[in-house]
Amino acid sequence: MPTVREQPGLPGEMGKPVRTPPEEEALMKEKFKLNQFNLLASDSISLNRSLPDVRLEGCKTKKYPPLMPTTSVVIVFHNEAWSTLLRTVWSIIQRSPRPLLQEILLVDDASERDYLGEELEQHVKTLPVPVRVLRTGERSGLIRARLLGAKEVTGQVITFLDAHVECTEGWLEPLLARIAEDRTRVVCPIIDVISDETFEYVTASDMTWGGFNWKLNFRWYRVPQREMERRGGDRTQPLRTPTMAGGLFAIDKEYFEKIGRYDEGMDIWGGENLEMSFRIWQCGGTLEIIPCSHVGHVFRDKSPYSFPGGVVNVVMKNSARVAEVWMDEWRDFFFEMNPGARSVDYGDVSNRRKLRQDLKCKSFRWFLENIYPESQMPLDYYYLGEIRNADTQSCLDTLGRKSGENLGTSYCHGLGGNQVFAYTKRQQIMSDDNCLDASNPSGPVKLVRCHGMGGNQMWTYTEKVTWVNQCCMYCTMTREKSVVKLA
What we know:
By secondary structure, the chain is of the alpha+beta class.
């Protein structure tokens, strides 16, 4: 199917920004609350607007196998705006080779807006590819709604997309080609940014990959040199990523079933991306970002949706399940940083542990050693807990400070979080992805992103049970795990 050409004169063509006139500013702010993006801008843009070809030059000349699997695209939505939902659908239709696109499944997770009912069902019947609307009946959340869609697909590959994205030229072929070569590959596009204010299409870096911190929050980090060398310096080659963002990826349908689908014990949303990432790697699969595939996504500062039970509790429960099933002793980092998670009822995980056993999955240590040696979780460490001043009974505390700021002290609250530090076998004192760092003998001691090169971040634990580095700050540590005394 031919690519949509630019429609001169229409707002937002070629991914350009749409500016809201001053006289409509108040209305824009009011409507912004509905979806947490500029609905006025979105509604003014064509449903099949043109976008630039953002691929690297080397991607544009790549040849793909003549026979590739078909895909069903599954999109879950809840109270999504008409324009963003239909623009998502049209971008898939217009920029996917027709023989490869089996169908599009729109899974409505109990939307309350009238236009997403009969009007949507009638509209999709007019589209040039098969589009079906499935409904959960009651609010199920992203995870269970995706499982509903996955049960109904007829394509050989399931491609999960969010409901406010725009696919670019050549987005699908490189994803399916990787799966055609090896069905245990799970592949993700580069996720570009669509501005929540102007809907400008902004190309994201192909030099970042997915990681996570001690709280099990997904984070983007710079691709390490070793991965660049593995690819021979060719930025068009697939990038092996430790974790994925989770909103946009493709997976072989049979492999999705074999590897355990989603964890049905999880609620709503949150943590499922890390759970699947760990499971893919530890159980024999491969997780990749494909630089030749680009899909834009509307990133919002906050979610417009309410979570039954509250966002924090839902995500904490899901993350606790991830830690308990897949992370072995490194689960302690999560629970130390989130002490409230110890009292959360995360449900029965016996089936997921059995799945890990049945699939003969590798350990989390193997994952850290072979897939993510750059992880913020130390591979080997002596101690995890608080660092306490023996005289004042105050504790080292990050106080929520950012990298580059001075470390502080506070009363010892015993609740973990900002007062959790690890002393590693690389002689670092770490707090998440920051390390204690002192550039001169008189201090001060700062929190600085861990670089793993010793120097200002190297702390020595002597036979006198003392930690020392060149800034002359030293600590004594009792043999008990629970207390470190700051002299």
